[in-house]
Structure formats: C-alpha cells, structure tokens
Amino acid sequence: MKKFLFMIVLGFFGCSNNSTVYLCNGPQSKVYHRTNHCQGLKRCTTDIEAVDISTVAEKHRRACRYCY
Ligand SMILES: [Zn+2]
Question: What distance in angstroms lies between residue 1's CA and the mean position of ligand 1's atoms?
Fold first, then answer.
C-alpha cells in the first residue's frame, strides 16, 4: 500500500496542477502541502497522500507555513 501511494505521489509530481495538495496521514498532521518535497513533510513518518485541494477543508487542514 505504501509503495502504491508513493507511485501516485510521483505521478502527480510529474504532471502537477494547482488543485493537487499533499497530506501526511500521521495523527499529528494538521496541514496540507503544495509540494510533496516540502521540508514540513520530511517529519512525516506515515504515508503521504496526494489529494484534490477541495477535500482538505473537510479534513480541517490548514496550509503549510513552509510551502504556502
Ligand atoms: Zn509544506
């Protein structure tokens, strides 16, 4: 599963658009990221998920202060 998600992230990185954001799935994570290589994501110990920005409001995430 982790490898599968990583492939998705790589795919989005190759053809990124403005509506894709990146989430760390860890329980402590409360932000979303503009890129999947943000320094804020380096502390992520779980899977990184690429999602559409329209879904982050439902998850009550705020924009990362490093990449936004
Ligand atoms: Zn970030």
Answer: 23
Domain range annotation of the chain: 2-63
Q: Tell me which residues have their CB within 5 A of the ion that is ligand 1.
A: 33, 38, 40, 64, 66-67
The pTM of the full predicted model, rounded to 2 decimals, is 0.70
Give the residue among 19, 26, 57, 54 at the shortest CA–CA distance from 41.
Answer: 26
What tens digit of pLDDT does each residue of 15-68 get?
A: 555 799 999 999 889 999 999 999 999 989 999 999 999 999 888 899 999 999
Q: For residue 24, how far is its CA from the centre of ligand 1 (angstroms)?
A: 10
In the reported structure, the alpha carbon of residue 29 is separated from the centroid of ligand 1 by a whole-number distance in angstroms of 11
